[in-house]
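Lecture 7 notes. Example A: sequence first, then its structure tokens.
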Amino acid sequence: MTAHLIGAISVIPYMCVVDEFQHRMYEQPDLDAHQRRQVWREIEQAYMPWRDYDGEPFLEEGGFWMQKQHIFLYPFYYIEYALAQMCAFQYYGRMKTDRAQAWQDYLRLCRAGGTRGYFELLEIGSLLNPFRDGTVAASLGHVVEEIRERY
């Protein structure tokens, strides 16, 4: 279980890198290949300063983004994984304190899925909006604490 939580939390920064990179590319469509790699590396270092490519020049200069097919095939889709994960973390935390209520809220969300917009579905599922200040910390705080307790 702990390994799953660590894996789930550790991909969030990468998902944010992909999303911000895509926004920048659409805002600046005339960037050349070198400039695009520079933008990737700048964003990557902001979200994932620990990433080290061991001197591999192409990757050190920001070439890593080219291996992510979502960027080419499904623009702006990757962030949906991060948003869904934030909600899953919220339900996981609520399940630990009131499993029955968390299940009822989740079931209500599933029944409404596909019938409403994202923000309305958050309300239906009694979920916090990941775009509001404090939601990420609230969604992840209990996960981080659980990982710390186990290690």
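Example B, a different protein, same format:
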Amino acid sequence: MKILIVEDERDLAELLAFNLEKEGYQTLVALDGRTGLERVRTEKPDLIVLDLMLPEVNGIDFCKHLRKQESTAALPVIMVTAKGEEIDKVVGFEVGADDYLVKPFSTRELLLRIKAVLRRTVADDSSGKSILVGPLMVDTVRHRVTVNNEEVVLTSTEFKLLLTLAERLGRMQSREHLLSHVWGYNHTADTRTVDTHITRLRSKLGEAGEMIKTVRGFGYKMEA
């Protein structure tokens, strides 16, 4: 798997690359946002570790650009930043980041997050089944979603979140359970992550998004 590190602190970028390569990943490094976007176009990475505060093109605009292009709309992104305020996390998720880490972080934590995100990009159901809920169709093998036969491009995290709700149709899912099941970690302070992704998912699904119901004080469920 090829990982692009877009980080303007050269020492940190090289340290991350060194540790990722020890784990068997191929790495690429870009020290500014403009170079990072060019690397995405020419190298086609499997995942991006993206700093928020970058010269040339910042992390927010970088992520927005990826999500607007059909070829990169589902490309996994882990955003890293020295900023840890809640609003920064929300903005990061709103523009389509799959996960978020605040500096300083351990290499082990980053590796765990990378593995969790990459797992979401691999189909985990070989039965060939599709889940139909109203106008929504979720193809579990091809990781493809359609609403009224029109394809909707989702990130790997958005797909896993939708699949979890669709497979448990009519059953309430707590924010804590969704955080653990979809993101692979359990920090109750990060449940806003779930809310932000639900909002983005509803928006992408259009009329089908109305089937995702908020259970006040608890979490979410999908109803046909």
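Note on Example B: The CA atoms of residues 41 and 184 lie 29 Å apart. The chain has two domains: 2-120, 130-222.
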